[in-house]
Specification:
Elements (H helix, E strand, L loop, with lengths): L13 E7 L2 E7 L2 E6 L2 E8 L3 H9 L1 E7 L5 H9 L4 H6 L3 E3 L5 E3 L3 E14 L3 E13 L9 H6 L35 E2 L6 E2 L36 E2 L2
Antiparallel strand pairs: 1-2, 1-5, 3-4, 4-9, 5-8, 6-7, 8-9, 10-11, 10-12
The structure holds flavin mononucleotide (FMN).
Length: 238
């Protein structure tokens, strides 16, 4: 099986939120999609170990915020790599309570949908929740949606093991002789937690690091823009 074929599947990037009483939950998902038009229904695939899975199962409601292209990688890192700590997560965002009582995250949302669960399927590692859309709102004009391809290629982001689209990159790594020659002698460094790659050619706009800054010259308090890992944890890519 050629695992790289899966990279040709297209997705957006979404914030899925829910609550059961006072217990809030939210996570990043690429797997959210419309399954019917009349009535409109969305499906989400939520890992059983996600804190959110239990919250959605108990409450029977969830919201889907379609993130805009300008979303910073740090927000995706917090909601996509940190599990459960809803206090820390919800302090970082603006949100409202929607018509179902579930939180709707507005930060970087191009649009949002509020859903009531009408079906739930056990698909192995994940639950597939089918939600009937009870509200759909455009959050501002003309915000381009963030795509999974942009997240991977431009933000250098990566999907963790709990994402349905997780791919073990060691299984598709090319042999050394097939790799393209680096365009610079500057070494790229990789985050061992989320696999973000610091590329000196690109710098890190989210932390005002200009292109051309070698890894060694990054400030000591520089952190991974995706999952907030410390600079000291990074390892050379090769
Ligand atoms: C780009 C990206 C896509 C993801 N897609 C999904 C997804 O579709 N389903 C899922 O269950 N987890 C997905 N995850 C992982 C969850 O966001 C992650 O496990 C999160 O920490 C769960 O939070 P919770 O335990 O507080 O619910 C994704 C993460 C990233 C970074």
């Amino acid at each position: 099986m050629n695992l790289e074929a899966f990279y040709k599947m297209s997705y957006g990037i979404y914030m899925i939120a829910s609550c059961d009483g006072d217990e809030l939950s939210a996570y990043i998902a690429n797997t959210a999609f419309q399954v019917t038009a009349t009535p409109p229904k969305l499906a989400i695939s939520c890992h059983k170990d996600n804190h959110s899975a239990g919250v959605i199962e108990r409450s029977g409601v969830f919201t889907v915020s379609a993130l805009e292209k300008d979303t910073d990688a740090g927000l995706i890192g917090l909601f996509g790599y940190k599990s459960g700590n809803e206090k820390q997560k919800f302090q970082r965002v603006n949100y409202i309570t929607g018509v179902t009582g579930a939180p709707v995250i507005l930060t970087h949302a191009a649009a949002y949908f509020e859903c009531r669960v009408v079906d739930q399927f056990d698909v192995g590692t994940h639950y597939l929740f089918i939600g009937e859309v009870v509200e759909a709102v455009l959050n501002g004009e003309d915000k381009d949606p963030l795509t999974y391809a942009w997240y991977r290629e431009e933000l250098q982001g990566y999907a963790p093991e709990r994402a349905p689209t997780y791919i073990d990159r060691s299984k598709i790594a090319k042999p050394a002789e097939d790799r393209e020659a680096p365009e610079t002698t500057d070494e790229r460094y990789i985050c061992p937690i989320c696999a973000y790659v610091y590329d000196p050619l690109k710098g890190d706009v989210s932390q005002d690091i200009p292109p051309g800054t070698p890894f060694e010259d990054l400030p000591a308090d520089w952190i991974c823009p995706v999952c907030a890992a410390a600079k000291s944890m990074f390892i050379p890519e090769n």
